[in-house]
Design goal:
The protein is mainly alpha-helical. The chain has one domain. Helices cover 77% and strands 2% of the residues. It has a two-stranded antiparallel ribbon. α3 runs antiparallel to α4 and α7 packs across α9. It is globular, with a radius of gyration of 20 Å. The protein starts with a helix and ends with a helix.
């Protein structure tokens, strides 16, 4: 049932269209602020207890509803699981945002391109230049918006998918805050991302250039055990062989800041940007196929229900 639910939800995303308008987490932000206003003065709040207080009630409520529906009929249980998974993806459709960006580039509309780019860019500076930052953001966002949600749904069901999405929402609002509560959110977020980033890195390796992807993973892992994003990005970029092309172009132009295909430092051609983005999106899609294939084998073997 897990595989069927995932395939059904992905089909809805692909053929019905983005459902971003249904994915609102304002209720959770209001609820978390309410908890913080009433409990932030207590010493227990400044640590894991505060995170548990915020996350446990909605997760427990979902678990109770699932159990109640399952006792009536498994069909209702399945439909709720699909609805929760669909709700937890995103929350914004990455493919739609990227399409807006590439269409603006093709049209030569710099303002529209900049606005669309800001919707998914996380890495404003990157060792491989602006284009490297764009590709790094795509790889990271693919994990946050899709792969991690699918993984925790497969492991813990709808509760796992909601756990990851709510944790990601907390992290998005508290990642620049310092304190025991914010640190606990970061720790939980990193813990949830640890297996998904490495499985995504493995998927990138299998779906792209295996040797270079594994080498990029190895270099990133050697820095620290808390390098989820580095592992994901280095393996993904090396699977695309972007660093090798970047280094070649940098040597040819004599500038260390020139991204692949650029004529001036930090200003790649629109055609090159679109080409690399399409390759990155292709890598993500092939990695998704690898994941689904493995899940199908595990389902047939009875490892996953």
């Amino acid at each position: 049932m897990t595989l069927i639910a995932i395939l059904l939800v992905l089909a809805i995303e692909r053929f019905v269209g983005a459902v971003d308008h249904l994915r609102h987490f304002g209720w959770f932000r209001t609820y978390s602020r309410w908890c913080e206003n009433r409990l932030s003065t207590r010493s227990l709040w400044q640590g894991p207890f505060g995170v548990i207080v915020i996350l446990l009630p909605p997760l427990l409520l979902l678990a109770v509803i699932i159990q109640a529906l399952h006792s009536v009929t498994p069909v209702l249980d399945f439909l709720l699981a699909c609805a929760v998974l669909l709700y937890c993806l995103g929350p914004a459709d990455l493919g739609h945002q990227v399409s807006r960006y590439t269409e603006a580039l093709e049209a030569g509309d710099r303002n529209a391109a900049a606005e669309a780019h800001a919707a998914f860019i996380n890495h404003h500076w990157h060792p491989y230049g602006p284009l490297g930052g764009t590709l790094a953001s795509l790889l990271e966002q693919a994990n946050v918006r899709l792969f991690a949600v699918l993984f925790w749904f497969a492991v813990l069901g709808p509760v796992g998918a909601l756990l990851y999405r709510l944790t990601a929402e907390l992290y998005r609002h508290y990642h620049e805050v310092h304190g025991g509560f914010a640190n606990s959110i970061r720790d939980l977020y990193n813990l949830l991302n640890w297996p998904t980033t490495r499985l995504s890195a493995l998927g990138f390796a299998l779906a792209g250039n295996l040797v270079d992807a594994i080498e990029g993973w190895r270099r990133a892992e050697a820095r620290s055990l808390a390098v989820n994003e580095d592992v994901l990005i280095e393996s993904g970029l090396n699977a695309l062989q972007f660093p090798q092309v970047y280094d070649t172009d940098a040597d040819d132009t004599g500038s260390e800041n020139v991204a692949a295909g650029s004529t001036t430092a930090g200003e790649p051609h629109s055609e090159d940007i679109i080409s690399w983005i399409e390759m990155a999106r292709g890598l993500e899609n092939r990695t998704l196929i690898v994941w689904l294939s493995v899940l199908a084998v595990m389902t047939i073997a009875g490892v996953v229900s």
